[in-house]
Write a structure and sequence with these properties.
With 511 residues, the chain is an alpha/beta fold. The chain is 43% helix and 10% strand.
Length: 511
């Protein structure tokens, strides 16, 4: 590559960051890091009517949680700021004037009512070469009237002057050469006097040029706008430094029929936002991957493979591995189905690979939420518990259901297990078992198991009946890890206390 790779992720602060936007940010980041380049976060807030308080902070927090590191941005600073478009008004004015002075754009005074009348009068009306001279603009009005309208404060917009009949070529690194005839393009609005701000089209071209962006990597919904952007680069005289384009495939609903939406997540039970979002207007709460118990590394790995592959069958990859393998050669041109079950699989795999001590840190708030003070047990105990049960879970929160009996003695016992496992002779067997346990010189799992099994065999007792009833008193149901691993952690006195309570509490179901 001839010039330094500089990419930008440019979200609008109009609400929570959709998971499709996160994937766009990730691909920008992977590409930049793969080529030793810079990652810019630019806030595109020119649409003041749609601004949502808290959205910008949400974007920054989401990217930070996921490990997508920003080199230049509102928070990070940099040599190409400001990085918020609403703070770049003076810059845009200069370039609007340049287009007007060079005859590449014109001023239009049409009111919303006049535009609506034109649409009603002309089927498929488009503001372009075939209609512009019939509208109220600086091409159809005398210069004096134009000046008078501006001086009088009449609201206006600046439109780009598109010459019809020309084939415009867009070279896309993923899709190849895309050619569109300029006759189908309308004279897009580039600037509105009402709020003294440019539209997306002008602002993003000017910013990408001034920030020396080398590659514009964005969703395929922007592909129809790419010919307009090519023409704008030419109009400014920047064709030689125009960035390369990459238009990424959409994230599709799990069934592949249409673009992924929040409703799909609500309906099928998965988040479509990286973090939980509290809507400041409605108060509605939308679930997030972080709060749902996903590890950020798992989310990154999962997202990276929605529309890209490393060229082999590798699935589990760290951020560094993704960076080393990433290229658009292995990107799909078609939409990627959002296989949310695969996301759960990735999370399971990453939980298994996460050190138990780190899972302990994540599990502490879950314990507190369930009325357990982690400090009453200590991190060493909690870590040992996690090592016994984590193989059964996809999420940190699920550790509670698998391990709660380590922290709270059962108060009830599963009826189905009582019916199946509790016999008339069970209390007597368990009373004998207590004596065997008290006699053990070593209560560790490895030391306790052989003599207990020998006692069962010597007495001719049914092993399943003894051990399942034993488990029922400890856990409250017939589930959980190896029983002697449980007793080692509970200790002799708590083990005996639970067996005794079971003997006193559990009664045979009536026939």
């Amino acid at each position: 590559m001839d010039r330094k790779v500089r990419v930008r992720f440019a979200p609008s602060p109009t609400g929570p960051l959709h998971i499709g936007g996160v994937r766009t940010a990730l691909y920008n980041y992977l590409f930049a890091r793969r080529h030793g380049g810079d990652m810019i976060l630019r806030i595109e807030d020119t649409d003041s009517n749609r601004f949502v308080p808290g959205a910008e902070d949400y974007i920054n927090e989401s990217l930070a949680w996921l490990g997508i590191k920003i080199d230049e941005g509102v928070r990070e600073g940099g040599n190409f700021g400001p990085y918020k478009q609403s703070e770049r008004r003076d810059i845009y004015r200069k370039y609007v004037k340049q287009l007007l002075d060079n005859g590449k754009a014109y001023i239009a005074f049409d009111t919303p009512e006049e535009l609506e009348a034109a649409r009603a009068a002309t089927p498929n009306f488009q503001y372009d070469a075939s209609t512009r001279l019939g509208m109220r603009n600086s091409l159809s009005l005398p210069a004096e009237e134009v000046k008078s309208l501006i001086d009088g404060g009449t609201p206006y917009v600046v439109r780009f002057l598109i010459e019809p009949g020309r084939d415009v070529e867009v070279n896309d690194l993923l899709r190849g050469k895309v050619t569109i005839n300029s006759s189908i393009l309308d004279d897009k609005v580039l600037y509105k006097s009402a709020d003294d701000l440019p539209t997306y089209h002008l602002a993003n071209i000017v910013d990408d040029h001034l920030m020396e962006v080398s590659h514009v990597i964005r969703g395929e919904e922007w592909l129809p706008s790419a010919p307009l952007h090519v023409l704008l680069y030419e109009a400014f005289g920047w064709a030689d430094t125009r960035p390369d384009f990459v238009h990424l495939p959409l994230l599709l609903k799990p069934d592949g029929k249409g673009k992924l939406s929040k409703r799909d997540g609500d309906r099928l039970g998965f988040p479509v936002f990286p973090l939980e979002w509290h809507d400041p207007k409605t108060g509605a709460i939308s679930s997030g991957y972080r709060e749902s118990g996903y590890l950020p590394e798992a989310v990154i790995n999962f997202l990276a493979l929605l529309g890209w592959n490393p060229g082999d069958d590798t699935e589990i990859m760290s951020m560094d591995e993704l960076i080393s393998k990433f290229s658009f050669d292995h990107c799909s041109r078609s939409g990627a189905k959002f296989a949310f079950d695969k996301g759960r699989w990735f999370n399971h795999e990453y939980i298994q690979a996460t050190p138990d001590a780190e899972l302990t840190r994540l599990f502490r708030p879950v314990l507190e939420a369930n009325g357990v003070n982690p400090d009453d047990f200590g991190d060493d105990y909690i870590t040992r518990v996690i090592s016994l049960v984590k193989g059964r879970v996809n999420f940190v929160a699920e550790l509670w259901d698998q391990s709660k009996f380590f922290f709270k003695a059962p108060e009830t016992y599963a009826e189905k297990d009582i019916k199946k496992r509790w016999k008339p002779e069970t209390p007597e067997l368990l009373a004998e078992l207590i004596e065997q346990l008290r006699a053990l010189p070593d209560f560790s799992s490895a030391a306790a198991e052989p003599p207990v099994l020998e006692w069962v065999a010597a007495k001719g007792y049914h092993l399943g009946n003894v051990m399942n009833a034993f488990r029922l008193t400890l856990v409250g149901e017939c589930k959980g890890p190896h029983i002697f691993d449980i007793t080692e952690l509970l200790g002799l006195e708590e083990t005996v206390r639970r067996i005794t309570r079971g003997i006193e509490t559990i009664s045979l179901p009536e026939a």
